[in-house]
């Protein structure tokens, strides 16, 4: 009997699955986590034929993250995920502005995985960290 997965995507790192000698597959909520990370890490205009895909956080890496920039970034992340990832809903984004390092941008995206199989939902979070190279 084969397992049925609701969602599946290629592993974006293109790691090799040693058992089947093929590219690894992300399944169910792991595929959604990967999709959210991909949306956040993509710069608008980077994806051909879909110029509004992405958030563009790399432009903020060299800027100080104050409350105004954090609010703008949170709005952009929520909009991009709502538009491009209907399987998830963002509940909150934690920036930790008290611990800002000029060389790093780090935050946690808390979200709910919406299940198409009834009313079951899964709470999950994803930490995004960018560090500039010196």
Can you describe this structure?
- The chain contains 2 helices and 7 strands; from the N terminus they run E-E-E-E-H-H-E-E-E.
- A hairpin with a 6-residue loop joins strand 6 and strand 7.
- Strands 5-6-7 form a 3-stranded antiparallel sheet, with helices on one face. Strands 1-4 form a two-stranded antiparallel ribbon. The protein has a two-stranded antiparallel sheet with strand order 2-3.
- By secondary structure, it is of the alpha+beta class.
- It has one domain (8-131): Nuclear Transport Factor 2, Chain: A, CATH 3.10.450.40.
- It is globular, with a radius of gyration of 16 Å.
Topology:
Blueprint: E1 8-10, E2 16-17, E3 22-23, E4 25-27, H1 29-41, H2 67-84, E5 88-94, E6 104-114, E7 121-131
Antiparallel strand pairs: 1-4, 2-3, 5-6, 6-7
Notable characteristics:
134 residues, alpha+beta, Nuclear Transport Factor 2, Chain: A, three-stranded antiparallel beta sheet, 23% helix, 29% strand
What is the distance, rounded to the nearest whole angstrom, between the alpha carbons of the first and last residues?
52 Å
Strand tally is 7
CATH top level label: Alpha Beta
Sequence stretches where pLDDT stays below 50 over 5 or more residues: none
CATH arch. level architecture: Roll
Main sheet characteristics = 3 strands, antiparallel
Percent of residues in beta strands: 25-35%
Secondary-structure element series: EEEEHHEEE
Shape: globular
How much helicity do the residues have?
10-25%
Query: How many distinct helices?
Result: 2
CATH topology: Nuclear Transport Factor 2, Chain: A
C-alpha-based Rg, rounded: 16 Å
